[in-house]
Amino acid sequence: MPKEIGVGVLGYSIGRVHAHAWNNVSEVYHPLPLVPKLVALYGRTKSVVDFEAEKYGYARTYDDWEKVVKDEQVEVVDNCLPVSLHPEPMIAAAKMGKKLFSEKPLARRAKDAKKMLDAAEKAKVPHMVGYNYRFIPAVTVARQMIADGTIGKVLHFKGSYLTTNSGYDSPDTTMRWQFQSDVSGYGALSDLGTHALDLARYLVGEVSAVASAQSTYIGERPVTGSPGKKGKVDVDDLTVAAMKFKNGALGTLDTSWLMPGRMDYLTFEVYGSKGALSYNLERINELGVYLTEQNPGSSGLRSLNVMTKESPYMKQYWPNQGGGFGWDHTFVNEFHHYLSSINEGTPIGPQGATFLDGYRNCLIMDAIAESARSQKWVQVPQ
Ligand SMILES: NC(=O)c1ccc[n+]([C@@H]2O[C@H](COP(=O)([O-])OP(=O)(O)OC[C@H]3O[C@@H](n4cnc5c(N)ncnc54)[C@H](O)[C@@H]3O)[C@@H](O)[C@H]2O)c1
C-alpha cells in the first residue's frame, strides 16, 4: 500500500498550478510509493480559497498561514506566497519539523534566504525551491551534454528571460507586489531573471562576479480602487548583466517584463570548445545542437525534438506524440523528484534546487543590484 503525505499550500495563484501537479503526480508516476494529499489551503480572499479548495479537493481552508503550518496532518508546507512572505512561514514550518517547498526566488535578499537555509538545515528537514525549468526533458539533455563534455569546455553562456505576458508593458497596469521592492526583492530580476540564473548555475556552474545595469521605464502605476492615485515602482523593468563563472566561462543575462512580442522567452545558448546548444521555453521540446566534429565545414544548430520515449521523463507522458510535454508537467516532475527524495532518503540536489541553491541565487541577484548601483564589477560571495 502506498503511504500518504499531507500537503498544505499557502497561496492560490501559482498555488493552483501546484495543486494540479500534486494531484497529478501519482497518476503520471503510478505506482507512487508516497502519494500527496491536499490537506489545507491558505489564501486571502475567502471566495477564491473556497473555489480553489472545492476544485482541487483540499480537505480544509484557513484564513491564516500559521494555521496551515500548525495543522497536524500537514507534513509538507508548500509556499506560493509573494516573496516577502517566504521566510517567516518556512522558518516556522522548519521549527515544527515540516518538510519545505518554496516558490522562487527563495527570498528578497540573500540574508533572508540564509536564515531559511539555516532553519531548514538545523531542523534536518527536506527543502526545495521551485526552479521547475530544471525538469524539462530538453534542459536535462542539455545538462547531460555539458556535463559529459559533448560540447567541450564551456566558454560562453547567454541567458534571457523576456516577457510581456502579464501586461506589464502597459502603463495602465495597476500596482501590484511585483513592482514593490519591499515585497518582491527586485523586479524582472526576481520574477524572471532568477530562473535564467538558476539555469546558468545548473548548466555551467557557480557565478563568481557580475557587472550590470538596471532600468525602470514605467516609474509609477495606477493604484486599484483609488482613482487618480499613482504608486511608485521601485524595481527594475529591465536588467542586463555580464557574468564571470568560477570555471572561467563568461556569460550574459538579460531579463525584462516589458519586451514586446515575447511571452515566455526563457532562453539559453551555451557555447563550448567542441559545440553549442540553444534552448527557448516558447518551443519547450526543442534543443538546438551543433557539434563541430560531426559537422566539419558547416555551421548552424540543428533542432532536436526531445520527446521520444528515450528522452528524460518522457516515458511517463505521451512520447512520440509531437507535443507530449507541456509547462504544467515541469511541476509534476519537480514534485515527483521531491517526493522520491523524501521516500528514498536521497538528496534533492543536484537535480532539484535546494535552499542552498536558492540562497546562492539570491547572492547573485544582490551582486547584480549592487553592481548596477556602484557601476563596478561585484564579486559574488562563494
Ligand atoms: N515557478 C514558476 O514558474 C512561477 C510562476 C509564477 C509565480 N512564481 C512564484 O510564486 C510566488 C507567488 O507568485 P504569484 O504569481 O502566484 O503571486 P500572486 O500575487 O498572483 O498570488 C500570491 C498568493 O498570495 C496571496 N497574497 C498576495 N499578497 C498577499 C499578502 N500581502 N498577504 C497574504 N497573502 C497575499 C494572494 O492572494 C495569492 O493567494 C512568487 O514567489 C513567484 O515568484 C513562480
Could you explain the architecture of this structure?
By secondary structure, the chain is α/β, with parallel strands linked by helices. The chain contains 10 helices and 17 strands. The chain has 2 domains: 3-132, Rossmann fold, CATH 3.40.50; 134-324 and 354-374, 2-Layer Sandwich (Dihydrodipicolinate Reductase, domain 2), CATH 3.30.360.10. It is 32% helix and 25% strand. Helix 4 packs parallel to helix 5 (110-123) and helix 5 runs antiparallel to helix 10. Nicotinamide-adenine-dinucleotide (NAD) binds next to helix 1.
CATH architecture of the largest domain: 2-Layer Sandwich
Total beta-strand segments? 17
Number of helices, where a helix is a run of at least 4 consecutive DSSP H or I residues:
10
Supply the CATH superfamily name of the largest domain: Dihydrodipicolinate Reductase, domain 2
CATH C-level class of the largest domain is: Alpha Beta
Indicate how many domains the architecture comprises. Answer: 2
Instruction: Report the bound ligands by name, code or SMILES.
Output: nicotinamide-adenine-dinucleotide
Instruction: Tell me the CATH topology of the largest domain.
Output: Dihydrodipicolinate Reductase, domain 2
Strand content bin: 25-35%
Along the chain, the helix and strand elements come as: EHEHEHEHEHEHEHHEEEEEEEEEHHE
On the 0 to 100 scale, the average pLDDT is 97
- Largest beta sheet: strand ordering: 16-15-14-13-7-12-11-8-17
Ranges with pLDDT <50 over ≥5 residues? none
